[in-house]
Specification:
The structure holds 2 protein chains of 2 kinds. By secondary structure, chain A is of the alpha+beta class. Helix content of chain A is 31%, strand content 20%. In chain B, helix 6 crosses helix 7. Classes of the chains: A alpha+beta, B alpha+beta. The complex binds flavin-adenine dinucleotide and FE2/S2 (inorganic) cluster (2 copies).
């Protein structure tokens, strides 16, 4: 059964054209077939960043991006029509040592050196994106890169040096790329590729017939791959990946009704929208003000660039963060299949442990997120504060009326993750809260009730008892954060 | 800073680690089929399904071993592959080797090999093992004074229990080896090891060859941290076995998951202590029993236990002391060397004991510690005199630097106001003995060539794994010849150039190998100066070498380095030399447990501050300040990197890294998604490392001090800082401060349990 297809892309400065199975991990192709050994394998599960490469994309709006991507979680087929830049590509710059490399070298940020290519890639992507050229921005850029040798101090100093050297980069992406090329940060191949007259490698075709259309073998949605490749580190074929992120129809965020104010009518969010796009979307922040502040609690920047909302839901983990968030936002999912589309509330999608209400040939196409007047909060506790899966998480959207010191709940939606075989909505707690004044007694009672609705398990991320205690505290935390004027902290923690 | 060429290759992605080397066409890839449960009796291997996967697949078992199926050195308990009819001791032990055309095939095939076996009841807990008499070698005790009598005269006596967990190395490059059959039955091996000679010896034994037929080369490693000291031999020997059986080159690179479940880690310890102080807080007596969970294989456990015992009193003067260690054999992976090598576990116990004293008596922790610090004239409990002690010096400098008193007051006033975030601080001194605790290992060799163009090549037994020992050695050599460091190249370690080496470990890498290199340089230098004397017509004692030139009484002469080298060669004088160094003055008598096992001690002091989120039970590290006694540094930038890196690992061990096994001995945290090591955000932004200036160390190369391990211990202060913050919260929340149990790592789960009174 031949599952190969033609994949064509630019690797550094060479055009690559291969017949290959598009589901193959890009890392193996890069190290094996291309012989580019500067890209390292440290974990093969997205947790170390040693395998990071730059993936250039020409966007539909005429813009471009070069994002740092863990190649161990990247399907080879995702490179089709794109520009792969590895550490060898960067080292081809004039003189071979880019300013990023030099900074790392001069601050002694490379000891054993195994993490260094990934760190260089991540910092280079950060300069190209140019979003936050400050120390915090630099740390976010490299938060997905583990270094076991340096303790990060030297890498931080290198990043600081880059901040001061590159704080004046032009705002326009193309001008910035030109400036970086001039400074020897990137080779000329990047700007040349961006300006090629080829346009975006995405499609508008959609997948009208659901997933059953393929004539040989199964078709499977391949979104960010950040969950799939962790579970299947060495896939050997047997399915056609459907790269949903390439389909405009599933990869954008729009207001529900054209022309209408998003804030009033809600949003349509494509399943292939990435976690980063979601948190930083102006639309999303307009209906959930301040939601961008929770981005750093999810995975790492490397992963957030790839991970999609649809993948977060469909991987059906009981503790997925975006699932918890979307559930509290009362999202509805639109499922597309051979018989057309149907809608169902997200909270109903989960039938059992890792089991979804998805029919043969169906996939998740979009989320509908209604507008509301609620206040929103997200809580997550994991063993390591960043880049870790939660022991428990919970999101909460609460609409209140009345005075700030003693508001009355109109409506509450609270989700809980890691507390049962499936992600939960805490229906009883929500019902209890409706109409109640936000005060210490009610909050304490709600927290207790919340725990009674759950059936957590013990595993490496926490015992069942711990999870119960934690959820109780996190529910209280929602109220302390959302209603600072209600004096809850002083009363509950004298 | 002058980067050495190796670091340049690193940042350009051009360093070649084992898995990056060019592959021969005939290369076979290996994977290991491992034991499926913690303890079992192997009856047979069923390779049917694996062989059916692909024609290239070969399965190799213990029956194929030509020599002795044994890698254990201290105790013969480490078979290369467990043979049918024998028991295996832990889940993940190698039972069969699988070879195939590709890594992917080899790993899949390894997953298809099945075994027939009897599952046996495992023992996982160290104390349970001790109770059952499962003790490796015999318990070991060190003592000084009379503890029983001293306890009777103490104002306060406290006993307690202390637990510290294991720690996975997470060197970013996993264990790897590449074996190539050479002429005759010789074997060339590239091994990711800190101990090339150990690997050579192991291979020679299992292949039944003399050592001179086995050549082992250690390239630059992607991290080691002790995990590639004894633990690298198995993989190299397996690759050689595959190469011997097939006649083809074999590469074995462990996947991260296999590396995590099959290889050794830091030893978990469970300990009891009893401490007694007088009414002013002076320590009069201390006793401890250390139950070391040694895992299924002896490995380096005896040496590690001995370091525990040597460091039982940390930097404190304890006149009456009695400590006993037990190596408990369990059915967990073979616990092994990890930066610190048994010392951190001991430091944690004595610090816990002092914490308990401070809480019970109300004596301020810093005051309590300071008044008990060692001074010159004291002696360690094993009889070694305390000399050039810098315990008070670094302690006082740190207290001044962080303004300890006002720091404490600020924390208290913050804590009085903020119900949701409590802050805490802790301070601790260190005193770390440098030398291998096994006397024999304190020796090293080198080979130095000066080529006729003036460039210099150095080979030593020191394996480069990121600790930048090659940079230090290059600096030593450059200074000896008075040339720029760019003239010097430090070659990777191979058994061809330097024989009978000991591991690059115990922080002694640059001490021993730097000295060995220097010895060779001095020989060549003397020959060069004799020639220079002839050429310049000046007496040799008036000459020296500096800035690439021969100097006479400190002023430059016309004779340059290049010319001198050329002329010396033309005069038919040898420009190569072998150097050797054995650390002097080390004596130890194991029977009486008395002697001077260390060349010197490293001192220092650290303060850590932390905050606890009372609501969520999470903590964050706010700052770390260190005053460290590093002697005169050969390379300050390298030393800072070592302190910062060790600190991160120490803090990770104390607070984050949670090496969990289930009740059947299966490692639960077996991937980087479940086993969390420090990331960028974990480390506080404020890490301030200061070196004591003006305190040279005359017992090591260029008056420096070893740097690799000692700073790891500072991480323990992170534990006590968080504990201090928890105590502040508990005072109001559950009454009483706790804890009844000192338990590393202090994960968020334990933190919340502590805050909610769910643990003592
Ligand atoms: C290092 C690391 C850290 C992580 N940290 C977090 C974290 O902090 N919080 C968190 O919640 N998750 C985390 N994850 C998990 C993962 O990144 C997220 O769940 C992510 O959102 C998955 O999305 P994806 O697009 O990458 O999914 P993929 O891997 O592409 O897909 C996952 C599964 O869902 C299916 N699928 C995907 N999209 C659809 C669709 N539209 N319709 C039908 N089926 C579909 C796929 O076929 C596949 O079976 C982490 C993962 C890694 C590797
Ligand atoms: S190999 Fe670790 S992130 Fe890809
Ligand atoms: S330098 Fe070794 S892992 Fe970063």
């Amino acid at each position: 059964m031949n599952m190969d297809s033609t994949i064509e892309f630019l690797a550094n400065a060479s055009v690559i054209r291969v017949e290959a199975w598009p589901g193959r991990p890009a890392l193996d192709f890069i190290r094996g077939d291309l012989g580019l050994k500067g890209t390292k394998e440290g974990c093969r599960e997205g947790d170390c960043g040693a395998c990071a490469v730059l993936v250039g994309e020409r966007l539909a709006d005429g813009g471009f991006s070069y994002r740092a991507t863990p190649s161990c979680l990247l399907a080879l087929g995702e490179l089709d029509g794109r520009h792969l830049v590895t550490i060898e590509g960067l080292a081809s710059c004039n003189g071979g040592l880019t300013p990023v490399m030099k900074a790392l070298l001069e601050e002694n940020g490379s000891q054993c050196g195994f993490c260094s290519p990934g760190v260089v890639i991540a910092l280079t992507a950060w300069l190209i994106a140019g979003e936050r050229i400050d120390e915090t921005g630099a740390v976010i850029a490299v938060e997905g890169n583990l270094c076991r040798c340096t303790g990060y101090g030297a890498i931080r100093r290198a990043a600081k040096r880059l901040v001061s050297d590159f704080s004046g980069l032009p705002a326009g992406p193309m001008q910035r790329l030109a400036a970086l090329e001039k400074a020897g940060v990137v080779p000329p191949a990047l700007a040349a590729w961006v300006m090629e007259e080829k346009g975006a490698a995405n499609s508008d075709a959609g997948m009208a017939g659901g997933l059953s259309g393929a004539d040989n073998g199964e078709t499977m949605v391949s979104a960010g791959g950040t969950d799939w490749y962790v579970r299947n580190p060495d896939p050997v074929g047997g399915y056609h990946p459907f790269f949903i992120g390439r389909e405009k129809a599933y990869a954008s965020i729009e207001a529900a009704y054209p022309g209408a104010e998003a804030r009033q009518r809600g949003l349509v969010i494509g399943a292939a929208v990435t976690v980063h796009e979601f948190f930083t979307s102006a639309f999303v922040n307009s209906i959930v003000p301040g939601i961008d502040s929770f981005e750093s609690q999810v995975a790492s920047s490397l992963i957030r660039n790839r991970a999609t909302l649809g993948g977060n839901v469909c991987n059906a983990s009981p503790v997925a963060d975006l699932t918890a968030i979307l559930m509290a936002l009362d999202a509805t999912v639109v499922l597309a299949g051979p018989e057309g589309e149907r809608e169902t509330p997200l909270a109903r999608l989960f039938l059992g442990y890792k089991k979804l209400d998805l029919r043969e040939g169906e996939f998740l196409a979009r989320f509908l997120v209604p507008a509301s007047r609620s206040r929103f909060n997200f809580e997550k506790v994991s063993k390591r504060r960043h880049l870790d899966i939660a022991s428990a998480n919970t999101a909460c959207a609460i609409e209140v009326e009345g005075e700030a010191a003693a508001p009355r709940v109109v409506r509450a939606a609270i989700s809980a993750g890691g507390m049962a075989a499936v992600p939960l909505r805490l229906w009883k707690t929500e019902a209890f809260l409706a109409g109640k004044i936000v005060d210490a007694k009610n909050v304490r009672e709600a927290a207790g009730l919340a725990v009674s609705e759950t059936r957590p398990m013990s595993d490496v991320r926490g015992s069942a008892d711990y999870r119960r205690r934690l959820l109780e505290r996190l529910v209280i935390a929602h109220f302390i954060r959302l209603f600072p004027e209600a004096g809850l902290a002083e009363e509950l923690f004298p | 800073m002058n980067p050495i060429p190796e670091s340049v290759l690193n940042v350009k992605g051009q360093t070649r680690y084992i898995d990056d080397l060019p592959e021969a066409k005939t290369l076979l890839h290996a994977a290991v089929a491992a034991s499926p449960c913690a303890r079992g009796l192997l009856k047979g291997v069923d390779a049917g399904a694996a062989l059916a996967l692909h024609p290239s697949i070969r399965i190799i078992t213990a029956a194929d071993i030509p020599g002795v199926n044994q890698l254990g050195t201290a105790v013969a308990d480490e078979p290369l592959l467990v043979a049918a009819g024998s028991e295996w001791g832990f889940r993940g032990q190698a039972l069969a080797l699988v070879l195939a055309d590709s890594v992917s095939l080899a790993r899949r095939a390894a997953g298809l090999v099945t075994f027939s076996f009897d599952e046996l009841e495992p023992v996982l807990d160290a104390r349970e093992a001790a109770a059952k008499g499962l003790i490796i070698l015999s318990p070991r005790t060190q003592a000084m004074g009379d503890t029983a009598a001293a306890f009777a005269s103490c104002a306060t006596v406290i006993s307690g229990r202390v637990e510290s967990g294991g720690q996975e190395h997470v060197y970013l490059e996993t264990q790897a080896a590449l074996a190539t059959p050479a002429e005759g039955c010789a074997m060339r091996v590239i091994s990711g090891t800190q101990h090339p000679t150990g690997v050579q010896e192991g291979i020679a034994r299992v292949l039944g060859l003399p050592m001179h037929l086995v050549e082992v080369e250690a390239p630059r490693l992607g991290g080691g941290f002790g995990g590639k000291e004894d633990q690298a031999a198995l993989w190299a020997a397996l690759a050689c076995l595959g190469a011997r059986v097939t006649g083809k080159p074999v590469k074995l690179v462990l996947s991260r998951k296999d590396d995590m479940r099959m290889t050794g880690k830091r030893h978990p310890y469970s300990s009891d202590f009893r401490i007694g102080v007088d009414s002013g807080g002076k320590i009069l007596a201390f006793e401890a029993d250390y139950y070391q969970n040694s895992g299924a294989i002896c490995d380096l456990s005896p040496a590690i236990l001995s370091r525990t015992l040597f460091h039982a009193a940390s930097a404190y003067r304890i006149p009456n002391l009695r400590v006993t260690g037990y190596m408990c054999r369990t059915n967990l992976p073979p616990f092994t060397a990890f930066r610190g090598f048994g010392a951190p576990q001991a430091f944690f116990v004595i610090e816990a004991a002092l914490d308990a004293v401070s809480r019970r008596t109300g004596i301020d922790g810093a005051k309590l510690r300071r008044q008990n610090l060692l001074c010159d004239g004291d002696s360690f409990h094993f009889g070694m005199p305390v000399e050039n002690c810098r315990a008070r010096l670094s302690f006082d400098r740190l207290v001044e630097k962080v303004k300890w008193e006002s720091l404490r007051r600020n924390i208290d006033s913050h804590n009085a106001k903020d119900p949701l975030v409590k802050r805490g601080a802790a301070l601790m001194p260190i005193c770390f003995g440098v030398s291998f605790t096994k006397l024999l290992m304190n020796q090293g060799g080198s080979l130095v060539h000066v080529y006729k163009d003036g460039s210099i090549l150095v080979s030593t037994g020191a394996v480069e794994m990121g600790q930048q020992v090659s940079r230090k050695i290059a600096r030593v050599v450059a200074l000896a010849f008075g040339v720029g460091i760019e003239r010097v190249r430090v070659e990777r370690t191979t058994t061809l150039t330097v024989a009978n080496t000991y591991p690059t470990a115990a922080s002694t890498g640059s001490d021993i190998n730097g000295m060995a290199a220097l010895a060779a340089c001095q020989e060549i230098r003397a020959r060069l100066l004799v020639e220079a004397a002839t050429l310049l017509g000046a007496p040799a004692p008036e000459l020296s070498m500096e800035s690439g030139r021969v100097m006479r009484n400190g002023s430059p002469t016309p004779l340059s380095w290049d010319e001198l080298v050329t002329r010396t060669h033309e005069a038919r004088i040898d420009l190569s030399a072998h150097g050797f160094y054995a650390t002097p003055d080390l004596v130890y008598d194991m029977k009486s447990e008395r002697g001077s096992p260390f060349a010197y001690h490293v001192y220092g002091c650290a303060a850590v501050t932390a905050s606890v989120d009372v609501l969520r039970g999470t903590w964050r590290l706010d700052s770390v300040s260190v005053v460290h006694d590093g002697g005169e540094s050969i390379d300050r930038a390298v030393d800072i990197g070592q302190v910062e890196g060790a600190l991160a690992q120490g803090l990770g061990w104390a607070l984050l890294e949670d090496l969990r096994f289930d009740e059947k001995g299966k490692l639960l945290a077996d991937t980087l998604s479940t086993y969390k090591v420090p990331d960028f955000h974990f480390m506080p932004e404020k890490v301030d490392v200061e070196f004591l200036e003006g305190f040279p160390n005359h017992r090591a190369v260029m008056r420096s001090k070893a740097i690799g391990e000692p700073p790891l211990v500072y991480g323990i202060a992170g534990y006590f800082a968080v504990l201090d913050a928890i105590a502040a919260a508990r005072r109001t929340a559950v009454g009483g401060e706790g804890p009844g149990l000192y338990d590393i790592p202090l994960t968020p789960e334990k933190t919340l349990d502590c805050l909610m009174g769910a643990r003592p």
